């Protein structure tokens, strides 16, 4: 899962069907304020934290909003109990390992501390992202206007926030040919590379995901399916591989429709690159970006 940032961050994680239903489904809270993003140089202990509220539940665990008693800074605390399903704990161990390796990366939601208690409970203290999931954002603020979408896409910065289905690769992605991630946003070639583009290109796949995400922000529901439908993996695969790319409703601008069409070409080689999209009229109009 990735978190996307403009001037402030937005979560583009959507609560749609995932490949493994046993994976912990923690709805990570979203974008940090500048104050919350500054971490203390001193180590934080579990005793320093005060629980404020529950942010979400998952298989075998809970995510809390917590506050440091001395500094009053807020964090997200992911807690998995010692008696949780072994599969859940294996996934959490993998996530802990990745977080330890990427603690200084500007592209990963910051992990401040990891607590392992004698009882077997494991807790991960992470930066607090205070704008909610995409689902809650759409419910509270409604759909996005074209100008707001253009601003988001133009200034997009991705931060990874959830490693529940991640793998640690040695040097290259060539060793990995399994499916990981949320299949609703996978591009056609991820399911059928021979038909839709040969070798899988993660960059082109991200462009497809961007197009779907912008459509969802505009329409208020996942664009490949009727509003409210939560299908299984096979239904999604059929919609992505055998259906036509989704189309925007009537009334949108020609620039927005063109931008989305450049993202949602079923053949990966026909999709525009990020550099090309940044020069597209949809992003350049009403902007001072100089494109």
Automatic annotation (TrEMBL):
Binding sites annotated in the UniProt record for ATP: 78
Keyword terms of this UniProt record: ATP-binding, Kinase, Nucleotide-binding, Transferase
Catalysis performed (reactions): L-threonyl-[protein] + ATP = O-phospho-L-threonyl-[protein] + ADP + H(+); L-seryl-[protein] + ATP = O-phospho-L-seryl-[protein] + ADP + H(+); L-tyrosyl-[protein] + ATP = O-phospho-L-tyrosyl-[protein] + ADP + H(+)
CDD domains in the cross-refs: PKc_MAPKK_plant_like
Region Disordered, residue ranges: 22-41
Matches recorded under InterPro entries: Kinase-like_dom_sf, Prot_kinase_dom, Protein_kinase_ATP_BS, Ser-Thr/Tyr_kinase_cat_dom
Enzyme Commission number, as recorded: 2.7.12.2
GO terms of molecular function: ATP binding; MAP kinase kinase activity
Residues annotated as domain Protein kinase: 49-283
Highest taxon listed in the record's lineage: Eukaryota
Family membership noted in the UniProt record: Belongs to the protein kinase superfamily. STE Ser/Thr protein kinase family. MAP kinase kinase subfamily.
Protein name: mitogen-activated protein kinase kinase
Organism (species): Parasponia andersonii (Sponia andersonii)
């Amino acid at each position: 899962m990735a978190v996307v940032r403009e001037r402030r961050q937005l979560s583009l994680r959507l609560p749609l069907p995932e490949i493994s239903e046993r994976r912990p489904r923690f709805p990570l809270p979203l974008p940090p304020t500048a104050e919350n993003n500054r971490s203390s140089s001193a180590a934080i202990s579990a005793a320093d934290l005060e629980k404020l509220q529950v942010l979400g539940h998952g298989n075998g665990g809970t995510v809390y909003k917590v506050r440091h008693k001395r500094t009053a800074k807020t964090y997200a605390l992911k807690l998995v109990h010692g008696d949780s399903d072994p599969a859940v704990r294996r996934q959490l161990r993998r996530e802990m390992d990745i977080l330890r390796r990427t603690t200084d990366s500007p592209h990963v939601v910051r992990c401040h501390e990891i607590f392992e208690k004698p009882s077997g409970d494991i807790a991960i203290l992470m930066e607090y992202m205070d704008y909610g999931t995409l689902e809650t954002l759409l419910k509270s603020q409604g759909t996005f206007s074209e100008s707001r979408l253009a601003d988001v896409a133009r200034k997009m910065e991705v931060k990874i926030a959830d490693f529940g289905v991640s793998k640690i690769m040695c040097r290259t992605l060539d060793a990995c040919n399994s499916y990981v991630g949320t299949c609703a946003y996978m591009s056609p070639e991820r399911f059928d590379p021979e038909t839709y583009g040969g070798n899988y290109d993660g960059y082109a796949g991200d462009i497809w995901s961007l197009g779907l995400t912008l459509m969802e922000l505009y329409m208020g529901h996942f664009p490949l399916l009727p509003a409210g439908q939560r299908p299984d993996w096979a239904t999604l695969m059929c919609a992505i591989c055998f259906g036509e790319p989704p189309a925007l409703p009537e009334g949108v601008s020609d620039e927005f429709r063109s931008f989305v069409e450049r993202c949602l070409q079923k053949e990966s080689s026909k999709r525009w690159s990020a550099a090309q999209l940044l020069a597209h009229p949809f992003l350049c109009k009403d902007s001072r970006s100089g494109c």
